[in-house]
Design goal:
Layout (H helix, E strand, L loop, with lengths): L1 H11 L5 E3 L11 E2 L2 H7 L18 E2 L5 E2 L3 H9 L7 E3 L3 E5 L2 E4 L4 H6 L5 H16 L18 H7 L4 H11 L13 H17 L4 E4 L5 H12 L3 E3 L6 E5 L2 E7 L2 E4 L3 E3 L8 E14 L12 E5 L10 E7 L10 E8 L5 H4 L1 H7 L4 E12 L7 E6 L11 E6 L3 E3 L10 H15 L5 H12 L1 H4 L1
Parallel strand pairs: 1-9, 6-15, 13-21
Antiparallel strand pairs: 2-3, 4-8, 5-8, 6-7, 10-11, 11-12, 14-17, 14-18, 15-16, 16-17, 19-20
């Protein structure tokens, strides 16, 4: 998805884009697999899906579970690029949080907050005061700070100021601000306050929850941006094997495929294409579960998110569940897809994710994957003095010893983390954009560039 969004944005920016994919489908790791038979093959399950699963082609199963924040960065990218014209979205019906072995709806309105059994009566009043404070907080207006220094006061101190208890801190930090760990508590509060504001603003748009999900699955997103790239002159090639990334004097000059070299000045790719330029930073376990029933205690929602804060299950990182159903054209009638995910912390990942799976019982079929997380060691921009041979990735060493400054101009995306929204993915996209273009990614600028190319009249 990162590569598809960037190829769309670079095409709008007037760059010449060639997008190659070794797979026969769009989206790489963020694809939606259809028909269901293909999912069984992908996970090496014997036999074919039982007849009770309905028609195989009624299924579009995401490999990476994520929702879109209604007011978040990805929705802005979709709106500004008008990729929304290729997609239809549905609001996710509810967000739930796990406490003491049970799940509770995350209050989405003041009335729900007052009726919620997550908190006692006095706690509710203090929490409401806190939410009003966050809503009025404006980092450009010191009058709204009430003695808090957004760049110095820690979030722990802000919670203390409103006298909020541990359970409320847990669900505020993990279900509203969407942090995966508790490290944020001792960091300046500005980022957390902005995250809670994003949640509230996203919620205000549709009311049920702050999350959106595209009909037919997340695989529609990369296809939408690939279309955008094509409209602006980009070329897309599926089923294109990559033999080697050609490097001269430490800088990328092209990509070799089927005996030919496509020459380029810059290259964007995911970690699987450049294993020598990335480092492993962790692992994520994801379990795709097929159910014949909605999840218990969710009021029979046909879609929801459940967050299990790490404190509740004695872990360092949260466990997430995303559930969608036939209402989103991703499963056969009467079927539900629930995907549980978390960051791996021990040698027994399946045991770590058990609290989530217990909430989903009975499970008809499950597909377990454990993925390595990679981050680039080469950011593509640094000048490095190198004393080594010029190399061709995937081929033999060539050339003489060099002593030069270079920036490889290879820009590598990060692997998807365990979070169930796209905010971290969008941060990665903006980071790659900045390293490539030397300037911040600016939504307004993007709109202007489109007007320059097509004129405002034709877009109406």
């Amino acid at each position: 998805l990162q590569e598809c969004i960037l190829s769309g944005i670079m095409s709008v920016n007037g760059k010449k884009v060639l997008h190659m994919d070794r797979n026969s489908y769009y989206g790489g790791e963020s694809a939606s697999i259809t028909p269901l038979e293909d999912l069984y093959k992908r996970f090496n399950l014997p036999g074919t899906p039982p007849e009770s699963m309905g028609r195989g082609r009624d299924w579009n199963v995401d490999l990476i579970p994520k929702f879109l924040m209604a007011n978040g960065q990805l929705v802005k990218m979709l709106l500004y690029t008008e990729v929304t014209r290729y997609l239809d979205f549905k609001v996710i019906e509810g967000s739930f949080v796990y406490k003491g072995g049970k799940i509770y709806k995350v209050p989405s309105t003041e009335a729900e907050a007052l009726a919620s059994s997550l908190m006692g009566l006095f706690e509710k009043r203090r929490f409401r005061k806190f939410l009003v404070y966050v809503a009025n907080f404006d980092e450009n207006d010191p009058r709204t700070f009430e003695g808090v220094d957004p760049k110095k006061t820690t979030m722990r101190d802000v919670y203390k100021k409103f006298d909020l208890g541990q359970d409320v801190i847990d669900f505020t930090g993990h279900a509203l601000a969407l942090y995966r760990t508790d490290d944020y508590l001792d960091q300046p509060c500005q980022e957390t306050i902005n995250r809670i504001k994003l949640y509230s603003e996203s919620l205000a748009r549709y009311g049920k929850s702050p999350y959106l999900y595209p009909l037919y699955g997340l695989g529609e997103l990369p296809q939408g941006f690939a279309r955008l790239s094509a409209i602006y002159g980009g070329t897309y090639m599926l089923n294109k094997p990559i033999e080697e990334i050609v490097i001269e004097n430490g800088k990328v000059v092209g990509v070799k495929s089927e005996g030919e070299v496509a020459r380029c000045k810059q290259l964007i790719c995911d970690p699987s294409y450049v294993s020598d330029r990335v480092t492993k930073v962790g692992q994520v376990i994801r379990v795709i579960c097929i159910l014949s029933h909605p999840i218990k205690n969710t009021n029979d929602a046909n879609s929801c998110q459940i967050i299990i804060p790490q404190n509740q299950v004695n872990r360092k990182s949260d466990i997430y569940v995303c559930m969608i159903s036939s209402a989103h054209n991703v499963a056969a009638q009467g079927k539900y897809i629930a995907i549980a995910s978390t960051t791996v912390e021990t040698a027994d990942p399946e045991k770590e994710i058990k609290p989530a799976l217990d909430l989903l019982e009975p499970i008809e079929q499950k597909f377990v994957s454990i993925s390595d997380l990679f981050a680039p060691t080469d950011l593509g921009t640094e000048s490095q003095v190198s004393q080594r041979r010029a190399r061709v990735w995937g081929g033999e060493e060539r050339g003489s010893t060099l002593n030069c400054c270079f920036s490889s101009q290879i820009f590598i995306s990060r692997t998807y983390d365990a979070t169930t929204h796209f905010e971290t993915t969008c941060d990665d996209i903006k980071d790659i954009y900045k390293r490539m273009m030397g300037s911040e990614f600016d939504f307004e600028e993007m709109k202007r560039k489109k007007n320059d190319i097509y004129g405002e009249e034709e877009q109406q």
